[in-house]
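Weekly modeling sync, notes
Attendees: S.R. (lead), two postdocs, one rotation student

Agenda item 3: backlog of single-chain predictions. S.R. asked that every request posted to the team notebook include the full sequence so nobody has to chase files. The rotation student volunteered to paste the first one in as an example of the format we agreed on. Action items at the bottom.

Example entry:
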Amino acid sequence: MNSAARMVGINSMSRFTEGTTPVRTLGRAFRYGIATLASALLATSASSQQSMPLSACTVGPLRNCATIDFSTQSVVDGTMLQIAINNMGSLTQPLMGTSIYNLVFATGATTLATPLDLMLSPTAQGSATITDNSPWSLFFGGDVLFLSALNDHGVGNCVPAGSSAGFGQAGNTCGGNDAFVFSFLSPIGLDLSTFSLLNMEVVGLGSAPFAESCGDPDMPCGSVPTSTVPEPATLVLVGAGLIGVMIRRGRIRS
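Predicted structure, as returned to the notebook:
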């Protein structure tokens, strides 16, 4: 190939390379734009969702504890609020069946011009069981939220118990992920960091049922201890183990 031909080839390659440079640049810009848009969408999605757990124990003889997990999701018409209630049971009487049948929360939000007065049936989360799907009453005034079992059959703990004096369990929550879940659409935005528990009412379903509450100024709710409430099955196993140790010691001594 002579020098003139080489120059023509080089010039052609140069034009081809120069011609593709804007295309490559455009491709990079397009990919960068897509990545930026995806990041923005993920950030928006994360900011539109909130979750916050509350936990408390009554401070009377029963010392019944509960966890209430709140979560929100922004939607077109407002904010979808979900309330998940887990009855952890009694610290002082772990083999007694209990029921949480009334809860009141302060939300820190503005008062609604038209409060919501709803009838909601719970759904089960985790391994929770619901044997009575009767509706609960939910009143939402914006700054306050009431949730009450209309037939006084509330969220039971890990110990199934029959009804007594009109009170009972609508089902049972046992594991840490178990819960009775209630959901409704709030017409206003909610900041879960301002939520607090005003009142929790629990009934112990023993031979003589008795109610216990906390949240009033004279009887604030206590905090849940770091050690969890032992499940009845665990207590049975521990008891069987202790009996076995005692029998073994008796045989050795004899």
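Discussion: group reviewed the output briefly. The CA atoms of residues 62 and 92 lie 6 Å apart.
Action items: rotation student to repeat for the remaining queue; S.R. to check formatting next week.
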